[in-house]
Amino acid sequence: MAEVLVLVDHTDGAVKKTSAELLTIARRIGTPSAVFIGSQVEAARPRLAQFGAEKVYVVDNADVTDYLVAPLAEALEAVVKQAGDVAAVLVPTSGTNKEAAARLAVKLESGLITDAQDVQPGDDGIVVTQTAFAGGYTLQGVVTQGTPIITVKPNTTPPQASQAGAQVVPVELTVSDTAKSAKITEVQEKKKSGRPELTEAAIVVSGGRGTGGDFSPVESFADVLGAAVGASRAAVDAGWYPHSNQVGQTGKQVSPQLYVACGISGAIQHRAGMQTSKTIVAVNKDEEAPIFELVDFGVVGDLFNVLPQATEAVKKA
Ligand code: FAD
């Protein structure tokens, strides 16, 4: 079977859950191989082997991490060319990765589908499910030209272990001068909250304008659930929460098992980032709030009353 290349998302060799999800998807459509960018492949190998990577292509070239996006596309192109028989390239959805995937598609003259929620083998090719128009439509498509390049949203598929060899295959790369057009000069480490990564979390509790700027009940509820904290754009624009926590069309797209919207009206741009969540709960004091059209469970009430009670109830459970 042809190889399915999975770009590994990692921090210093610590492989993120999305990579296990993408390797699980890759096994449905071909032979999974990981693409590892960086020098810490030995730290990553056991987890990549655990989730079925037969090979791990390693691009250990500082230019790829020192410059913005373009060298990453060149690295992926080099791996595709070295691998030869490639059925698809799967990339975890993020701003950077989507740009790299688009550049790769141009280089390979291939079709690209972004923000996939499901990827399955089909009679006409690899069938990709995605939503369009801020979640108003669900559509299925296949790439009809070249090697399908697909960016996949996190939390779309439960990772399933399947031990494989994870044979390391070095890939030589000389990054072109044109790709080295924008250098990263400083990286500021994010403050550690101790909470899970927003796009990877199984549970997300988000706060909106209804918090009035006091996120403490939202954070306390998130902490008893082991959840990540999200925010609406209104809350972010008001300076109450960082943009890195914004959920929606111009923020992050999340698809957790459980999404709890607190004091959020449910504007279409917010829905665009969360409506593929498996179970949606809202707490809002306005029973007419549009978010209630979307929810599995709704609580009409003041979040400052409801959330502390819910937090205590979870603690006792
Ligand atoms: P509001 O709409 O003001 O809603 C606040 C809600 O809180 C109300 O329903 C109210 O009943 C409820 N409430 C008030 N007090 C309480 C209380 N004590 N307890 C319980 N409920 C209470 N928005 C995003 O979120 N993400 C995006 O990525 C995004 N991108 C955008 C892109 C564009 C181009 C544009 C034009 C807009 C975008 N927006 C985005 C903004 C979006 O249109 C809304 O303005 C925003 O989502 C509203 O945030 P909110 O629900 O927190 O505030």
UniProtKB/TrEMBL annotation:
Name under which the protein is recorded: Electron transfer flavoprotein alpha subunit
Cofactor binding, per record: Binds 1 FAD per dimer.
Needed co-factor(s): FAD
Biological process (GO), any one: fatty acid beta-oxidation using acyl-CoA dehydrogenase
Quaternary structure note: Heterodimer of an alpha and a beta subunit.
Binding site for FAD: 209, 232-233, 246-250, 263-270, 284
Family statement: Belongs to the ETF alpha-subunit/FixB family.
Alphabetic keyword roster: Electron transport, FAD, Flavoprotein, Transport
Molecular-function GO terms, alphabetical: electron transfer activity; flavin adenine dinucleotide binding
Stretches assigned to the Electron transfer flavoprotein alpha/beta-subunit N-terminal domain: 4-189
